């Protein structure tokens, strides 16, 4: 790590995009309009599973006010036998998710889209589209989808040579699993289930697009990557990327689910056909039925340990519910569940199971919370059986630098034990807990840890010195939670000027170089890295200019506190030249000052987190409340501590919802039965306590500021930590989520 | 069907509009009036992103018909700052990073202002229940609750 002063890095500055957001001026995706704009609406399947024999759009097209109707036939065709990868997505499946092709695969699956003069006419037109369906039996739950006689969603899909809903598997192994268990003194094996949960962003998907007469396209939409929007739109419409300008609107939450698109290519097709700009806005009902969610899971985890707590073997079978098309995040549970521990014998297998619900989308550390729920609950049981402190057992088994992870990487820095130790030494862990505070109420405490890979990847940035000597930074990454604030801190620090003189904006696809998705806990890591490289180049330019003015060698100039100075007495005596002075002379001394840096960044070491939680259970009503929560995580370096804490606090509360109240419910026809925020129960303000974030800063040696990704690890431990706390309170373990009141009372009434 | 004429006052400014009988207040604010600071998260009164005040009372504008604004005083996020000066809650939200994506922020601010008007010295629990109608998925609420309590303390101090 560079030795540097830290006037701005680590300061709690006001974010560059803040004032617009507290005054309602910030423009999110539904806030854009165009002259002559018409409204798009999606016709959705009323069946969970049906073959589409025909679609007749003629009546809809004839309705006055209707400007265009499109179906899958209007999209570029992606045959099922040829993979077309875009990042981790496959366009075969993206195309079929966006508009049903051969079959309607879930209740709410888009069938056709209409553009009309207003929303009412568009809705009326949707009713006039005649779809001839052959209704088929459906399967929603994993257990139903993998039964021998399950309805098969895709004829082309085979597992072990037979038609199957298992789209694929992923296996990671180390050592010899059977020998491993033979060496163990204690073995615990448990089977777990979790329900699908939605990412729950408050902003529904929306877009406004314009296909102009010359074939140039402009898209205003919010996403976790304007370049992803451009690429998917290009692939699905056949329009070259150079003709698609995707402008990132402010994003009202994504949490992974806005790393894919649902609307933009469809809107472009409608705009092309109608010759009018088109706006489509999803309702909350659409969002809950037909976007995201994260998969449900069915998991069996078996762990073996020696008497002293040394882990010797771990086996996991993780079935994830992909939704109607392949693409479960298998690498989450398969790779992360045991990754923090040095276990010599591991066999970790994931199964990607398709079923008749909306295709899964990424959700914060995709798949890792599922696996950690299983693995960290089993570890808790092993620690209890051996009479060991659960934190002590984790420290004893931590991976070490140089260990090979089962997912292939070799660990560099490992800061897992620091997170465990932070909880062990925290007053929360030592505080007395009255386990029977009043009749009918039990309290308990639990701990769990979590692991996430983190990521680097492509990032572009421009740093430009304005003519009046201030700084404008343009990055290519949508800002979901304060990345502009973090980059402003870095640039103010490196250029050596007041924070208020730096502005950070997000470029669109045609104004900044390619930048990969905001996801994987990568953006602050990657964009700080390219911003640093860019600042170094700009400082080089500034020193060159000063050298020219002073007529000395550029090496004899240093840059300090926003000024060029002679590097030493030998360089000569000159009064300092400030950024403003150099900017004023820019044109006469060689032209504008600024650079673009584009890198495929590497060196993102994994994230580790350890959490401690106290819960209170009302044993009559089955209500579980979280009383106190402490979350420790190594963040490498907190460029802006408030937004680092915010990531941890937000991730924890999403985890609390996952553990206690959130789930998808389906009726017997396979229709989502709780597609509102009233019935899909996310935590509200009165459900949760303050979340204490223990921000540990052990600089990542591979990053100029020491940054380690933050956003995802915080959602990994809460599910197990809460389940372990509930066990401490009740003496009964929960192997199924959510631990909602009806399920808690049912479990308490059970005979075991 | 003929549109209905409505005369109302929004953020202190008298204005008129024509609307369908079925239009929600939110539709009219965001559509013809161009006041897109008020957000739609659900359309069913469950998320609070569309919070406004009607004669000083907190409302989800998605649950209110636009015709009901006749003769009323409507307050939206666009009217919260006075001229160029932010309301103390807006300023504190910035200082304490009480927003991440910001989509819920207008509704949370309108709701918090209503809460402090009724109860200038709320406990943490009162803040939490006062804001329970405003979903935020990013922050975990911690910094929102702290910012509201801190603002309340400063406003009480300023009023002494």
From TrEMBL, chain A:
The residues covered by the Aldehyde oxidase/xanthine dehydrogenase a/b hammerhead domain are: 23-137
Among Gene3D superfamilies, the record links this protein to: Aldehyde oxidase/xanthine dehydrogenase, a/b hammerhead, Aldehyde oxidase/xanthine dehydrogenase, molybdopterin binding domain
State the source organism's domain of life.
Answer: Bacteria
Q: Which SUPFAM superfamilies match?
A: CO dehydrogenase molybdoprotein N-domain-like, Molybdenum cofactor-binding domain
Please name the InterPro entries in this protein's record. Answer: Ald_Oxase/Xan_DH_a/b, Ald_Oxase/Xan_DH_a/b_sf, Ald_Oxase/xanthine_DH-like, AldOxase/xan_DH_MoCoBD1, AldOxase/xan_DH_MoCoBD2, AldOxase/xan_DH_Mopterin-bd_sf
What name appears for this protein in its UniProt entry? Answer: Xanthine dehydrogenase family protein molybdopterin-binding subunit
Which organism is the protein's source? Neoroseomonas terrae
Q: Lineage of the native species? A: Bacteria, Pseudomonadati, Pseudomonadota, Alphaproteobacteria, Acetobacterales
TrEMBL record, chain B:
Q: Where is the 2Fe-2S ferredoxin-type domain?
A: 4-80
Q: Which InterPro entries match?
A: 2Fe-2S-bd, 2Fe-2S-bd_dom_sf, 2Fe-2S_ferredoxin-like_sf, 2Fe-2S_ferredoxin-type, 2Fe2S_fd_BS, Beta-grasp_dom_sf, Diverse_Oxidoreductases
What domain of life? Bacteria
Keyword terms, alphabetized: 2Fe-2S, Iron, Iron-sulfur, Metal-binding, Oxidoreductase
Q: Pfam families recorded for this chain? A: Fer2, Fer2_2
Q: Does the keyword Iron-sulfur apply?
A: yes
Cited SUPFAM superfamilies: 2Fe-2S ferredoxin-like, CO dehydrogenase ISP C-domain like
**The keyword Iron-sulfur is annotated on this UniProt entry:** yes
What PANTHER family does UniProt report for this protein, alphabetically?
OXIDOREDUCTASE WITH IRON-SULFUR SUBUNIT (PTHR44379:SF5)
Name this polypeptide is given: (2Fe-2S)-binding protein
């Amino acid at each position: 790590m560079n030795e540097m002063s830290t006037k701005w890095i680590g300061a709690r500055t006001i974010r560059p995009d803040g004032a617009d957001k507290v005054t309602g001026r910030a423009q999110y995706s539904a806030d854009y309009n165009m002259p002559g704009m018409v409204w798009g609406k999606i016709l959705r399947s009323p069946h969970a599973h049906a073959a589409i024999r025909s679609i007749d759009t003629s009546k809809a097209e004839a309705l006055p006010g209707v400007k265009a109707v499109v179906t899958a036939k209007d999209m570029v065709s992606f045959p099922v036998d040829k993979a077309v990868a875009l990042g981790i997505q496959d366009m075969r499946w993206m195309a079929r998710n966006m508009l049903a092709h051969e079959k309607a695969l879930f209740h709410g699956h888009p069938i056709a889209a209409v553009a009309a003069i207003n929303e009412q006419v568009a809705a009326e037109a949707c009713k006039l589209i005649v779809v001839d369906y052959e209704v088929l039996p459906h399967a929603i739950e994993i257990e139903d989808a993998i039964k021998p006689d399950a309805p098969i969603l895709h004829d082309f899909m085979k597992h072990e040579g037979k038609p199957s809903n298992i789209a694929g598997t992923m296996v990671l192994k180390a050592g010899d699993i059977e020998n491993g268990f033979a060496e163990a003194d204690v073995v615990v094996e448990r089977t777990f289930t979790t329900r699908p949960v939605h990412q729950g962003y408050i902003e529904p998907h929306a877009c406004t697009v314009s296909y102009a007469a010359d074939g140039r396209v402009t898209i205003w939409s919010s996403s976790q990557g304007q370049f992803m929007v451009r690429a998917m739109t290009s692939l699905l419409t056949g329009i070259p990327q150079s003709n698609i300008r995707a402008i990132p609107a402010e994003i009202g939450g994504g949490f992974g689910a806005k790393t894919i698109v649902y609307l933009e290519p469809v809107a472009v097709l409608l705009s092309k056909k109608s010759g009018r700009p088109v706006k489509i806005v999803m309702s909350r009902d659409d969002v809950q039925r037909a976007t995201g969610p994260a998969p449900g899971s069915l998991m069996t985890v078996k762990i073996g340990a020696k008497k002293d707590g040394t882990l010797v073997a771990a086996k996991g079978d993780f079935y994830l519910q992909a939704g109607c098309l392949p693409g479960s995040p298998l690498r989450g549970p398969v790779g992360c569940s045991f990754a923090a521990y040095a276990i010599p014998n591991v066999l970790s297998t994931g199964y990607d199971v398709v079923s008749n619900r909306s295709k899964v989308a990424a959700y914060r550390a995709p798949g890792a919370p599922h696996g950690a729920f299983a693995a960290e609950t089993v570890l808790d049981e092993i620690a209890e059986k051996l009479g060991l402190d659960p934190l002590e057992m984790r420290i004893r088994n931590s991976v070490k630098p140089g260990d090979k992870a089962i997912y292939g990487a070799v660990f560099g820095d490992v800061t897992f034990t620091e997170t465990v130790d932070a909880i062990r030494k925290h007053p929360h862990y030592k505080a007395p807990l009255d386990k029977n505070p009043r009749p009918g109420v039990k309290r308990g405490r639990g701990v769990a840890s979590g692991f996430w890979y983190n990521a680097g990847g492509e990032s572009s940035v421009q740093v430009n010195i304005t003519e009046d000597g201030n700084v404008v930074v343009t990055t290519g990454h949508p800002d979901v939670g304060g990345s502009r604030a973090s980059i402003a801190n870095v640039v103010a620090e490196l250029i050596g000027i007041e924070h208020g003189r730096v502005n950070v904006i997000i470029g669109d696809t045609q104004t900044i170089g390619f930048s990969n998705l905001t996801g994987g806990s990568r953006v602050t890591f990657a964009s700080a890295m390219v911003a640093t490289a860019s600042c170094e180049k700009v400082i080089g330019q500034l020193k060159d200019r000063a050298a020219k003015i002073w007529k000395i060698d550029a090496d004899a100039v240093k840059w300090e506190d926003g000024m060029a100075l002679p590097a030493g007495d030998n360089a000569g005596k000159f009064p300092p030249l400030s950024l403003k002075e150099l900017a004023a002379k820019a044109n006469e001394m060689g032209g504008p000052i600024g650079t673009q840096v584009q890198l495929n960044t590497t060196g993102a070491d994994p994230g580790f987190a350890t959490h401690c939680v106290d819960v209170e259970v009302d044993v009559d009503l089955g209500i579980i409340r979280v009383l106190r929560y402490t979350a420790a995580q190594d963040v490498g370096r907190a460029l802006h501590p408030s937004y680092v804490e915010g990531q941890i606090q937000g991730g924890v509360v999403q985890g609390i919802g996952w553990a206690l109240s959130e789930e998808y419910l389906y009726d017997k026809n396979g229709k989502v039965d709780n597609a509102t925020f009233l019935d899909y129960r996310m935590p509200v303000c009165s459900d949760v306590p303050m979340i204490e974030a223990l921000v540990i800063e052990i600089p990542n040696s591979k990053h100029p500021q020491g940054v380690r990704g933050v956003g995802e690890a915080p959602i990994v431990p809460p599910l197990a930590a809460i389940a372990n706390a509930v066990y401490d309170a009740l003496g009964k373990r929960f192997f199924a989520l959510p631990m909602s009141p009806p399920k808690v009372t049912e479990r308490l009434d059970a005979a075991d | 069907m003929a549109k209905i004429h409505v005369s109302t006052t929004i953020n202190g400014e008298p204005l008129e509009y024509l609307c369908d009988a079925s239009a929600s207040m939110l539709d009219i604010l965001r559509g013809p009036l161009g006041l897109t600071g008020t957000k739609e998260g659900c359309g069913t009164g469950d998320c609070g992103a569309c919070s406004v005040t009607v004669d000083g009372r907190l409302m989800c504008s998605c649950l209110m018909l636009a015709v009901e604004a006749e003769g009323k005083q409507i307050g939206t996020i666009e009217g919260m700052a006075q001229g160029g000066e932010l309301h103390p809650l807006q300023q504190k939200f910035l200082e304490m990073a009480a927003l991440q994506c910001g989509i819920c922020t207008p509704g949370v601010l309108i709701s918090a202002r209503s809460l402090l008007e009724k109860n200038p010295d709320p406990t943490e629990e009162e803040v939490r229940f006062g804001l329970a109608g405003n979903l935020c998925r990013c922050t975990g609420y911690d910094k929102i609750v702290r910012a509201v309590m801190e603002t309340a303390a400063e406003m009480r101090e300023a009023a002494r």
